[in-house]
């Protein structure tokens, strides 16, 4: 998803206005005030959204530079199978994904920050292309689509906490966000 769409969703959620309103134009002063407040609030967080980093080396270099210039608290990689890491001609895709997973884990440990690596699961609930993703993870959160409106989030694997924790979220299509029940 392009950075502009991610930011639109964050603003819509924070300002409690529809994505359509952001796309077509704010219609009243109340919406304009809430959008302005949301933009100011997001600017203060120091959030940086990059949609131009495609390989492990550029992700690591950018994260290290950001950490040196003011710190970094979290990194989100969406999604791990799209990250490239050249291991040569004889490498398999599974090995490449495993090396990306390992590299991201080491980066998070080096920078002492949280790293969310989003992946797609196969039909049996395992990470596609590499089981190393699950092995490298400190915790695995699974989002299961129950129907168009509801999602269940569970934690089947967690090294330092309880496993089997579940909660349900409702999708708010107006702001393209989730709310707890």
Descriptive key words:
6 strands; four-stranded antiparallel sheet; globular; alpha+beta; 181 residues
Question: Quick gist of this model?
Answer:
The chain has helices spanning 3-15, 19-24, 29-45, 56-70, 93-111, 132-136; strands at residues 74-78, 114-118, 139-145, 150-158, 165-172, 177-180.
What does this protein look like?
The chain is of the alpha+beta class. It has three domains: 1-48; 53-137, no CATH class; 139-181, no CATH class. The protein is 41% helix and 21% strand. It is built from six helices and six strands, in the order H-H-H-H-E-H-E-H-E-E-E-E. The strands form two sheets. It has a four-stranded antiparallel sheet. Strands 1-2 form a two-stranded parallel ribbon. The chain is globular, with a radius of gyration of 19 Å. The two termini are 27 Å apart. The mean pLDDT is 90.
Q: Any chance you could write out the topology, listing elements then pairs?
A:
Layout: H1 3-15, H2 19-24, H3 29-45, H4 56-70, E1 74-78, H5 93-111, E2 114-118, H6 132-136, E3 139-145, E4 150-158, E5 165-172, E6 177-180
Parallel strand pairs: 1-2
Antiparallel strand pairs: 3-4, 4-5, 5-6
Helix pairs in contact: 1-3, 4-5
**Spatial strand sequence of the major β-sheet:** 3-4-5-6
Instruction: Write the element-wise H/E pattern from the N-terminal end onward.
Output: HHHHEHEHEEEE
Structural class: alpha+beta
- By DSSP (H or I, 4+ residues per run), the number of helices equals 6
Spatial gap, N to C terminus: 27 Å
Average pLDDT metric: 90
Strand content: 15-25%
- Apparent shape: globular
| Major beta-sheet overview | 4 strands, antiparallel
Rg result: 19 Å
Count structural domains. 3
List the uncertain runs: none
Q: Helix proportion of residues, in percent?
A: 40-55%
* Number of E-type strands: 6
């Amino acid at each position: 998803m392009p950075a502009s769409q991610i930011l639109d969703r964050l603003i819509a959620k924070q300002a409690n206005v529809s994505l359509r309103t952001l796309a077509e134009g704010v219609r009243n002063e109340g919406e304009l005030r809430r959008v302005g407040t949301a933009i100011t609030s997001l600017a203060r967080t120091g959030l940086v959204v990059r949609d131009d980093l495609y390989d492990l080396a550029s992700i690591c270099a950018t994260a290290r530079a950001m950490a040196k210039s003011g710190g970094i608290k979290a990194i989100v990689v969406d999604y791990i199978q799209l990250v490239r890491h050249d291991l040569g001609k004889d490498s398999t895709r599974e090995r490449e994904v495993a090396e990306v997973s390992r590299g991201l884990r080491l980066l998070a440990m080096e920078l002492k920050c949280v790293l969310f690596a989003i992946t797609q699961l196969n039909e049996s609930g395992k990470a596609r292309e590499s089981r190393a993703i699950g092995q490298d993870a400190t915790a695995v959160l699974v989002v299961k689509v129950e129907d168009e409106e509801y999602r269940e989030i569970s934690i089947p694997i967690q090294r330092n906490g309880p496993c089997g924790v579940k909660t349900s979220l409702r999708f708010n299509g107006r702001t393209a966000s989730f709310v707890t029940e």
